[in-house]
Design goal:
CATH topology of chain A: Rossmann fold
CATH architecture of the largest domain in chain B: 3-Layer(aba) Sandwich
Distance between the termini of chain A: 46 Å
CATH superfamily of the largest domain in chain B: NagB/RpiA/CoA transferase-like
Structural class of chain A: alpha/beta
CATH superfamily of chain A: NagB/RpiA/CoA transferase-like
Number of strands of chain A: 12
CATH topology of the largest domain in chain B: Rossmann fold
Strand order of the largest sheet of chain A: 1-12-7-4-2-3
Number of helices of chain A: 8
Bound molecules: iron/sulfur cluster
Distance between the termini of chain B: 47 Å
Number of strands of chain B: 10
Number of helices of chain B: 23
Strand content of chain A: 15-25%
Largest sheet of chain B: 6 strands, parallel
Helix content of chain B: 40-55%
Order of helices and strands of chain A: HHHEHEHHEHEEEEEHEEEE
Number of domains of chain B: 2
Shape of chain A: globular
Oligomer: heterodimer
Chain lengths: 254, 481
């Protein structure tokens, strides 16, 4: 069941805004540059971003690790898949996690955490809802998991953030409900700045849709360090409603 | 009626200045937030910072000048993403919209992440009256909901409370052992709210920004409650003042740089979530419905006056509060409505009417610290003077007594602005606070719905039929703690 539009009609609301502004119904006289949506221009812009990132990758990767550590991530730089798996396994062991939730993402094909964790008696399971258990069961299981592992759709060197785009296979809850979140970042996930990210997302948005009416995806999430609050006497406490501990596994190569 | 807010500011600030615990809390918070803000600016260098401010300012100028155009674009793109947009002229309409969605959808439990607009609307009471349980989930908001108070700061709602007061509150209202351990208090809140997140039918959030190009709602938080509120329940309702829109996704970058640094000195918050419509068919989770409620509620009054229009550029970072000598003395509650501090002194008269907030434009030393701190370069002192002029004029035409203070402050603009502010600070603070005391008057319970929660929080606690804290005591005694 869907709720119809309630409230005052759009036209009426906009007319009152116009009236307050003392203007008539007209678009801005000059096109607003950041709204440029010409596909060729956006494609070129994105290619420029990708080229620069490829060129500066070693620096960006170092910057990402340093900034992420400052923002509260435990950063584990790993020379290869074996090292990454060892890190995840020893973390699960330390935590005594017997249930580990993960997303269903490409990265787990090259970083097979399930088998590695099974070796130490931890059950690693994909948090997807289409299984026989259904939504409520998955949520309950998530709430009982000691750790959640995801990949990164992007990682931003400027801010030390992991960006995930929840979608099929990638629950919004895997990275927020368990008390510990591990994000596996591959070199190709790394970007320099917020501007880089938004340039790439704008291209995706305008390319995907008909008549420039693309799909952003329902959610885009920046994660930068643990959940925290300073609401009582400006004293920082971690792990309020989200994870108290976050780990960035930074793969130097796959 | 007209004098209500006037008397309130005076009486409340008088009480606040005598409240030693409040003074301590304000000192700690003000110097803390402002110190880290300055460090964050130094880190990127003043030049870069000025460049960002200029960019943000230009974006806001452009957007507000074409607000109708961008709101239309926003609506189109929210709809294209499968969401619904509702426009509300005032608080009553906005409340009716949310309450109607809740009714149609059979909503029983709501979890909320922080929304100043919802405070402005008094939404919780409206929902509670129709039998919906509403849970604030931001720790600061949770504390003040439990205490049946109102926020005293834009980004730190429970700033006025000491840890001892919170411990006392938790012990009394939740029946947990008294503990001043802040980690323990946060744990109590987490345990109490975790189940609510998963049970709730509806999540309500505010919006830091709305991106017209993509139809997205952006919230930035630290606790993770915003992520849960927008992800777990089957309905998500976003509430936003109509000024929150920015044109392009690209425009978001500079605001993500400015807002956390200005608010708490953080380089970025733990989370930034961008919501574009409801869950897609093959998404694992997310709400089935997304509603965006866009609220005017007096904002077009600020829009209409070119001299006040720039108050709509505000991104609610709170920096102007943290540097304001008056806010630092009296705290947020004295301002008598949702938006305290220097920006509140402009926005409140604009949103509730000048007549109801007469003293607020005088609650300033015009020292200019707010303008210097503002990440969008809002010239707050200029607007305060504009409001004082307006008041002085309308008072004259109404043949009412204009206090000497009002006149002196309004006429003395040039002198005040050109003098070293520190020299005048002591005298002006004293004047702004003490002159109106002569008018005296204790706060009576007002019939004005907009301010009634504030007066109630201080001197007229009205017991709800079954209060929020009763319900919590029940919840916690069920175990799980
Ligand atoms: S007026 Fe400026 S400094 Fe004050 S809250 Fe708004 S954006 Fe921040």
């Amino acid at each position: 069941m869907s709720t119809g539009n309630i409230g005052i009609p759009t036209a009426e609301f906009l007319a009152s805004v116009r009236e307050a502004l003392g203007r008539t119904d007209e678009p801005p006289a000059d096109p607003y540059a950041p709204l440029q949506d010409d596909l060729a221009a956006l494609t070129e812009q994105a290619a420029t971003v990708r080229e620069r990132v490829a060129r500066e990758l070693p620096d960006l990767s170092r910057q990402l690790g340093e900034t992420a550590a400052l923002r509260g991530w435990n950063v584990a730089r790993c020379g290869g898949v074996e090292e990454a798996l060892d890190y995840v396994v020893s973390l699960a062991t330390q935590l005594g996690a017997t249930s580990v939730a993960r997303s269903e993402q490409e990265v787990f094909e090259s970083v097979p955490v399930d088998a590695a964790l099974a070796g130490v008696g931890a059950m690693c399971w994909p948090a997807v809802y289409d299984g026989p258990e259904g939504r409520e069961a998955v949520r309950r299981r998530l709430a009982e998991s000691g750790m959640g592992i995801t990949g990164a759709d992007y990682a931003i060197a400027e801010t030390g953030s992991v960006v995930v785009l929840p979608r099929q296979g990638l629950s919004r809850l895997v990275s927020v409900v368990p008390p510990v979140h591990v994000a596996i970042v591959r070199p190709q996930d790394i970007l320099g700045t917020l501007d880089d990210l938004f340039a790439l997302r704008r291209l995706e948005f305008h390319r995907d849709g008909a008549q420039g009416n693309g799909d952003m995806g329902s959610y885009l999430n920046f994660i930068t360090g643990p959940s925290r609050t300073a609401d009582i006497e400006q004293t920082i406490v971690v792990g309020v409603h989200g994870p108290r501990e976050v780990h960035m596994v930074l793969l130097d190569e796959e | 009626m007209a004098e209500v807010a006037t008397r309130e500011f005076v009486a409340a600030s008088q009480a606040a200045v005598r409240d030693e615990q409040l003074r301590q809390a304000l000192r700690r918070a003000g110097s803390g937030f402002d110190g880290t803000r300055r460090e964050a600016i130094a880190e990127v260098t003043e030049d870069v910072w000025e460049d960002w401010r200029q960019q943000a300012r230009s974006i806001k100028e452009h957007t507000i000048a074409h607000l109708d155009y961008y709101l239309a674009m926003l609506e189109r793109n929210v709809q294209a993403a499968g969401g619904q947009v509702h426009f509300a002229r005032d608080a009553a309409q906005a409340n009716a919209i949310v309450s109607e969605i809740a009714r149609q959808q059979g909503v029983r439990t709501v979890t909320k992440s922080k929304s100043m607009v919802s405070e402005e609307l008094g939404l919780n009471h409206v929902l509670e009256e129709q039998g919906v349980d509403v849970f604030e989930t931001d720790l600061g908001e949770y504390i003040i909901q439990l205490a049946e108070e109102t926020p005293s700061h834009l980004v730190a709602p429970a700033l006025h409370k000491t840890r001892g007061q919170v411990a006392q509150l938790f012990a009394e209202q939740l029946g947990v052992p008294y503990s001043e351990d802040i980690e323990e208090m946060a744990r109590i809140a987490r345990v109490a709210l975790r189940q609510k997140f998963l049970e709730a039918d509806m999540g309500i959030s505010g919006a830091n920004f709305l991106v017209a190009e993509t139809g997205s709602l952006v919230i930035i938080t630290n606790e993770g409650n915003g992520r849960l509120c927008t992800s777990a329940p089957r309905i998500h309702v976003g509430l936003a003042g109509m000024e929150k829109v920015i044109p392009s996704l690209q425009d978001l970058a500079v605001f993500l740089r400015l807002l956390p640094r200005s608010a708490t000195g953080q380089r970025i918050t733990s989370y930034m979530s961008m919501v574009t419509g409801p869950r897609r068919a093959d998404d694992e989770d997310g709400p089935e419905e997304f509603h965006l409620v866009i609220v005017d509620n007096g904002r077009s009054r600020l829009l209409r006056d070119p001299a006040l229009r720039e108050s709509l550029y505000c991104i609610r970072c709170g920096a102007c509060l943290n540097v304001c000598p008056i806010y630092q003395r009296v705290g947020g509650h004295a301002y008598g409505w949702v938006y305290p501090g220097p920006i509140g002194s402009i926005v409140t008269p604009g949103l509730v009417g000048v007549a109801q907030a007469k003293d607020l434009p005088n609650a300033s030393t015009l020292c200019g610290a707010c303008r210097d701190a503002c990440p969008v370069q809002i010239n707050i002192p200029r607007m305060l003077l504009h409001l004082r002029h307006q008041q002085a004029e309308s008072d004259d035409t109404n043949q009412r007594t204009v206090s000497d203070t009002d006149k002196a402050l309004a006429q003395g603009f040039a002198t005040v602005m050109s003098s070293p502010w520190l020299l005048r600070l002591g005298r002006l603070v004293g004047r702004a606070l003490s002159a109106p005391l002569a008018r005296s008057g204790k706060i009576r319970q007002t019939r004005l719905p907009l301010v009634s929660r504030w007066t109630r929080a201080r001197d007229l606690p009205v017991p709800a039929e079954r209060s929020f804290r009763d319900r919590w005591r029940d919840e916690l005694s069920k175990g799980g703690n």
